[in-house]
């Protein structure tokens, strides 16, 4: 398991452990029981201070007293007791776990099934039933499942929307993730020499290779988080161009004179200028000024060429 997964499991067990010792416990003894350092234990305890019940006021949060080298729970916010779920809560968790179990390449499937059994027990022995359909509608998911299970490399032809380019890459598939209605192949890209997310509906061709590879740990970032390193531009979008906001990850900034004001992260300004021009005046640039100037110059060049052809 990854370090973050280890810590999450430890936090789930730490509060019941402390609550079972109402007189408190020495930090060194607790750290030894969990196989961690005292410094890591202190960090975990500080994180527990942020956990609690809805409302999240001081009276709703976990309260742990740490004096000298000893810790004692003063208020556990009910988190040290088994949860009794309502039928609606059990259904929501069950549906989420069933969706997770249906995701191709998911790890720890046995843990997912175990969690479903525990939810059924917490709901009074009744397991809610739901018709789960895979959110990913892309075809050929079995191919990705097989590549992940066999740890086989593959050659893909991939369209990158942010660059408006199609490239051929050799990848090492690690997992398939679902995000905002799309399925992504998480794979080590040998060209980029790093983990990447490839949207399945943008993989134009896939050829499994005979070679296998050593497993690599899948990144914990969500698909699209790499966009944080891209330049952000602000655009005003007319109603006739709302597909832009639907097709690209963007941040809503409000409205200006009836037009949607959005922030979009782009790979480079040349691609952004082509994108804006493609909407024929229904999209305008707010900032940066350099992009506005580039769009103007591209439009002027297009008009000049158009005039030359007419002449």
Automatic annotation (TrEMBL):
Domain PafC HTH: 6-120
Annotated WYL domain residues: 144-207
Pfam families found in the cross-reference section: HTH_PafC, WCX, WYL
Ranges of residues in domain WCX: 231-303
PANTHER family according to UniProt: PROTEIN PAFC, PTHR34580
Name this polypeptide is given: Helix-turn-helix transcriptional regulator
Organism annotation: Salininema proteolyticum
